[in-house]
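Backbone geometry:

***
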Amino acid sequence: LGLGGGGGGGVEGYVRPIFGAVLAVADWALRCPGLFEHLRKRGIPVVGYVVNDEEDWEFCLDQNISICTDYPDRLGRFIMKRRGEKFPRGPPDIVREAGQEFERRVEVERIHSVRFSGKF
């Protein structure tokens, strides 16, 4: 940004260490179990937003914090592994069964709409 030239001098030389310290304090504060207990006692829901690695999943689960992630399949496997459960059947089986259930529901809806509309 041109704030005082290169070599870590000028304003940039002061901003980076301060910014790093602020982030370290914020990380420590957000990992303090007392904070989450305080929020829960007041009825404030706690959600970990975009929690994408196992270390953070472990922390959230230990603290009973809801998790929002970009990788729900990985989180599901992580939780199952943590519980000592086996992984579910493969995706092709699940997709096929879901498709069959969808087709069954569509057929039921079609039958109901015909009955109630009086059209055959």
Remarks:
- Residues 46 and 65 are 6 Å apart (CA to CA).
